Amino acid sequence: MKTFFKPVARLCLLFVALTFVGCQSDTVDEPVMNDENTLMASSATAKLIERTVSNDGSFDNIVDGSSCFDIQFPYTVTVSGIDITINSESDLSLIEKLFDAVDDDTDLLEILFPITVVLADYSEVTIDGVSDLRELASQCVEGGDDADIECIDFVYPITLFTFDTRSQQTGSIAVSSDKELRRFFAGLGPNDLIGVDFPITFELHDGSKLTVDDYVALADAIENVKNSCDEDDDSDYNDDDFTEERLDALLVECPWVLQSILRENQDWISDFRENVLTFNEDGTTTIEHGGAIFSGSWETMITDWRVALKLEFEGMTDLNLEWFVYEIDEGKIKLFTDDANKVVLEKNCEYTKPCDDESITANLSECIWIVANGGDSFLSELTIDFSNFNIHVYNPNDVAVDEGNWSLEEGVLSFNDLSMELANYIGEWRITSCTDDRLEIKRGEELLVLERDCDN
């Protein structure tokens, strides 16, 4: 701590006082200040401090729907006909569990009034009914745009010096919490002067510490990080239950069954019942739909402070959206874009994908195959034998017109060493759809559809 600050601050404040006394009979000009050691209570820096220590009311949004205040413990709520007494923040998880018990229900909660709410400046107001609560909540700015700054915190204790330009009184006070500091500011007039006993330390939202030695550094510290974290100023009470990293790890653990799907308020589960999604670590994914396997890609991201899962499938676009993750709980992942579009995935580690590399290899090795989308081209006249990882191509007269070999790895089918009729088809083809008797493979924009013929 700077041992010279206290006498310097007091001398500065005394200088301000003498200057103000000497001028008050002749002029109404603002008092002279030394910006290095004092600031006015109405200054931008003082307002930043005030915002940083305001009460954060977002932790109980599941009850009151407002981030600008919280409800003072204890109080009672009724959820699904069950009365719950909320004695502490940890009791809010009981409400969450009841809400999550049913996936598609409407979450209804009733508060037993009267209640006492604590406002941003830690003052308390008694609320007698739900209409008064909604009126108060309507005055709150949500979504992280409210005045409260939550990404940085003061480390206490902090000593402050004051000078009242009206009564010409000086003083000092030690504060040990956000509440004490915020209430201190609530008692100041716009022309009151404040001194801070530097250095002071901040703790950032990631747990790191930052020490500052003057008002410029103090203001910069708050300004630089005030929008750098998720303030969770919304009613999505589940979004603190997981991280992007946890979601990434969970998706690749096992296949996931589509348990429910709502698109534009229409229940589509009859079309997608028992459809299975498999997520691979390389960012590829497949879905088994209608007896076929469709390939696509997946990635997670942070969008608007939410964890999102982006899906893109070839040939099957019903899931091609950027889905926000609503909840991860007990083997389920709940996704949504809005109230009209929701998906629930359920983990199924016992599921065996019917068209994995092993199954496809076994199927290709049996019978002969034709190019089903050959149209009027020469491809429609050919038959192909893939047995023993070889490729033997025959024309309608059963004459061999080409030969080579093939390999398959992680859904990529490679044609090798072809030199005649199919020489242009050498290379890697990704399997985009699969059944026991049909394969769709793509190379860039080029598509081949192979169908098995066991009658010839």
Explain the overall architecture.
The chain has helices at residues 5-23, 44-52, 61-64, 92-100, 130-138, 178-186, 215-225, 244-251, 269-272, 357-364, and strands at 39-40, 70-71, 75-79, 82-86, 109-111, 115-118, 124-127, 152-155, 158-164, 169-175, 193-196, 200-204, 209-212, 256-263, 266-267, 276-279, 284-289, 292-303, 306-313, 322-329, 332-338, 341-347, 368-371, 383-385, 390-394, 400-409, 412-416, 427-435, 438-443, 446-453. The chain is α+β, with helices and mostly antiparallel strands and 456 residues long. It has an eight-stranded antiparallel barrel. Strand 17 (284-289) and strand 18 form a beta hairpin. Helix 2 packs across helix 7 (215-225). 24% of the residues are buried. The model is unreliable at 1-35 (pLDDT under 50).
Rounded radius of gyration (Å): 34 Å
Q: What proportion of the residues form beta strands (DSSP E)?
A: 35-45%
Instruction: Record the strand order, biggest sheet.
Output: 14-16-17-18-19-20-21-22
In this structure, how is the largest beta sheet organized? 8 strands, antiparallel, barrel
Mean pLDDT comes to: 83
| Quaternary structure | single chain
Kindly state the number of beta strands: 30
C-alpha termini separation: 92 Å
The number of helical runs is 10
Which regions have little confidence, pLDDT < 50, spanning 5+ residues? 1-35
Shape: elongated
Percent helix range: 10-25%
Structural class: alpha+beta
What is the compact description of this entry?
This protein has 456 residues and is α+β, with helices and mostly antiparallel strands. The protein has helices at 5-23, 44-52, 61-64, 92-100, 130-138, 178-186, 215-225, 244-251, 269-272, 357-364, and strands spanning 39-40, 70-71, 75-79, 82-86, 109-111, 115-118, 124-127, 152-155, 158-164, 169-175, 193-196, 200-204, 209-212, 256-263, 266-267, 276-279, 284-289, 292-303, 306-313, 322-329, 332-338, 341-347, 368-371, 383-385, 390-394, 400-409, 412-416, 427-435, 438-443, 446-453.
